[in-house]
Amino acid sequence: MALMSIGVLSLARWQFAMTTVFHFFFVPFSIGMAFVVALMETMYVVKKNEVYKKMAQFWGKIFLLSFAVGVVTGIIQEFQFGMNWSNYSRFMGDIFGAPLAIEALLAFFMESVFIGIWMFTWNRFKPKTHVIFIWLTMLGSMLSAIWILAANSFMQHPTGFAINASTGRVKMTSFGAIVSNPQLWNVFPHVITGAILTAATVVTGIAAFGLLRKHSNHFFKKSMRVGLWVMLFSGIAVIIAGDFQTQRIIQDQPMKFAATEGLYKDTGKSADWTVIGTFDTDKHEVKSSIEIPKALSILAYHKTTGSVQGMNSLNKEFHAKYDKKYGSDMNYYVPVKTLFWSFRVMAGGSALLLLLAIIGLAMTGKNSKIENRRGFLWILGIATYTPFVFNSAGWFITEFGRYPWLVYGLQTIADGVSPTTTVGQMWFTNIVYFLMFSLMGAIMVFYSRKIMIKGPDNLDMAYGKSADSDPFSKEAFGA
Ligand code: HEM
């Protein structure tokens, strides 16, 4: 059977990609929503305007939904380390065990505790106190991100380790070096600003759908203003953080950078930037391209001169360095087309969202009638889905770009897979996960739509009820 001829390695990679992409739909959204909701509640505390309280409660409900689905998908994600990547887990366990344990025990715990307190105590604390809980929830989610990214950053740029001579595994020599890994402190701002941009775009887009449905105009217009302002600032911030990321990969993973720019040959003193291009990945050459002179030097070094190394010479360097250990058949070229187009989707996406934010802010000033601009509202509505694509494109660059390494320079992808897992087992778990994710996605969309259709005036959530409501009562659990 043709399907059974697909190997365990390909199926394990497919499964990890599927679970990660799906999980990462919810992660940036819930991190960003925690920030946007905290901002809304703070505006309520400062301006004492009830509409902001309603906003925090309405958007908070969508935030809770995404948080719940995010947790479930995250748990499934972790199963795979033992099931499909046991050689990797043995090799890396000493390093990634500590950050992941701290994440679960401290950061995730903090986030979950404060989200619960925030949800059930709207009428039990003064607004000034209550708002602290959502900021603490947000802080918990950011700390959580730091620890997960610390583990991922080691895979991209290993620091603070030594190879145990008898086991051949990595052992931690400096926890400080793992936490201060420069890769981590470049990824973190980019991921967080991307997350806030994601949430702001969704708030703006859902508000646009609300206005198209012609209900709660005042509420949705105000929500849209908040969404657009956050889109503007986070859109600028994600670009600045992305620029830092670019500088980092030029140094640490030049093959990844060369692939994002579709560069096979080394450039001259000034590097031209390929805007779009087609590639022959077998012959390792560019087939056709449209280029802007000197623009790649500007992107890479912020000046008009500076050469960039191409994939062909980098490939030779890798062979010279690793052939003794991995043999001369090893392929060090990363998937060029995936990286090249992902970069353009991600970076072009930020420009698009920034433009929408600027036009949107201009259209929603005092006395504006944005509710009548139906064409523009549709564009904003459709834009709701785009940051999820941009986030996935970002991770495609990060993860496909470290090929053939699982842990950069230390373990290859092929060496990390479980030795005993069978093709049949892989197919089974792939299909089960796919069905579960489809179900969870459908539940998320169904309930988000339900919340939207009910609108802000019908918040029947436990946390909107009176001061004497018991969070553990049957009603609170909807029984
Ligand atoms: C001009 C704008 C942007 C630039 C220059 C940029 C640059 C980069 C670079 C170079 C990477 C790869 C880093 C690595 O492999 O270590 C990356 C990854 C990523 N990007 Fe972007 N990016 C931009 C916009 C965006 C936007 C708008 C989003 C999301 C809404 C986004 C989300 C991500 C994510 C989630 C990753 C993977 C995590 C990471 O490595 O940081 N990026 N970006």
If you had to describe this structure to a student in words, what would you say it looks like?
It is a single chain. This protein is 69% helix and 6% strand. It is globular. The termini are far apart. The protein folds into 2 domains: 9-253 and 335-464, no CATH class; 254-334, no CATH class. It is built from 15 helices and 6 strands. The longest helix is centred in the N-terminal third of the chain and has 40 residues, at 8-47. The strands form 3 sheets. Strands 1-2 form a two-stranded antiparallel sheet. Strands 3-4 form a two-stranded antiparallel sheet. Strands 5-6 form a two-stranded antiparallel sheet. It is mainly alpha-helical and 479 residues long.
SS elements, strand count: 6
Average of pLDDT: 91
- Structural class estimated from helices and strands: mainly alpha
Which consecutive residue ranges, at least 5 long each, have pLDDT under 50?
A: 461-472
Strand portion: 5-15%
Domains (count): 2
How would you sum up the global shape?
globular
InterPro entries: Cyt-d_ubiquinol_oxidase_su_1
Protein name: Cytochrome ubiquinol oxidase subunit I
Subcellular location: Cell membrane
Keywords: Cell membrane, Electron transport, Heme, Iron, Membrane, Metal-binding, Transmembrane, Transmembrane helix, Transport
Summarize the SSE layout with pairings.
Layout lengths: L7 H40 L2 H34 L2 H35 L6 H30 L4 E3 L6 E3 L2 H5 L2 H31 L4 H36 L1 H7 L12 E8 L4 E8 L2 H7 L9 H16 L9 H28 L10 H10 L2 H15 L4 E3 L3 E2 H4 L6 H32 L25
Antiparallel strand pairs: 1-2, 3-4, 5-6
Helix pairs in contact: 1-2, 1-4, 1-6, 1-13, 1-15, 2-3, 2-15, 3-4, 4-6, 6-7, 6-12, 6-13, 7-8, 7-11, 11-13
The chain binds protoporphyrin IX containing FE (HEM).
The site of protoporphyrin IX containing FE has 27 residues, from helix 6, helix 7, helix 11 and helix 13.
